[in-house]
Amino acid sequence: MKQLLTAIVILFFIPASSQVLCGTANEGGSVTLTAPAGNIFTSIEFASYGTPNGSCGAFTIGGCHAANSQTICETVLVGQNSATVNATNAVFGDPCGGTPKRLYIQARYASTLPLTLFSFSARQFNPGTIQLYWESANQVNTAFFTVERSEDGSRFEEAGRINTTNNSAGQYSFTDHLLGIAEAFYYRLKIVEVGGTYRFSHVLRVVAGSKPKSLSVYPTLASDIITITGNKVQPAMIINSTGQLVKMVTLFDGYFTLNISDWLRGVYFIRTQEKVVKFVKN
Length: 282
Fold this sequence. Notes:
The protein folds into 3 domains: 9-111, Sandwich (Jelly Rolls); 114-210, Immunoglobulin-like (Sandwich), CATH 2.60.40; 211-282, Immunoglobulin-like (Sandwich), CATH 2.60.40.3080. Helices cover 5% and strands 52% of the residues. The protein contains 2 helices and 22 strands. Strands 9, 10, 12, 13 and 14 form a 5-stranded antiparallel beta sheet that branches. The chain has a 5-stranded mixed beta sheet with strand order 16-22-21-18-19, with no helix packed on it. Strand 21 and strand 22 form a beta hairpin.
């Protein structure tokens, strides 16, 4: 009598914010997990070839379990966007002869997209204190930010470190109490990824002991970053040449940077109640 073996593969999705994907298969089948585009699997939270139980997010090990389940699934899946694990004795060995087995896997994935720095700005409260602000997205692979300071714009030293939040986006601030007597101070962010790789933000220049006199923007011809200066807290509209609202921002007494790298090319205007300034995105 021929034995008919039916393989059933079931995939479970937990809501995207949890970044978890599960799959199950009966013995003889296989589990294929595919993370969303731009993501890779970073860890295996559960893996058992044998008689596991439960549902995605609440898997448990049963009375039969291959001890190498975790290691094998990590080897196949971690670092990949999509991979297949066969639920066979040839892969895991036979942890319980004569017992029908199954494979349950729960994997966590994260974005491979680099962090996006939306804004990086500085506000001087007094000649000895400067407050830095920045806003980011796609930061799930980012471990922390190092704030670096320079008095000449070329030699930087660490001024402080800020860990990222557990969210995909975050808003941050850092207060620097100055001890130097330079005419200007330069700041940049060292963005350190979980694996240890890093990159730097653009450099922000703050003139010591001075405050912006009126609304201005520089450079007036830009492709990625603009710096807006203001002398008080006030809302501002950024509109394009057709009068359409592109972005609302809140300015303050200091320096505010904005990432416009994904904006359409053209002429833009920054408008407050008192003044309008123009810049061009090339």
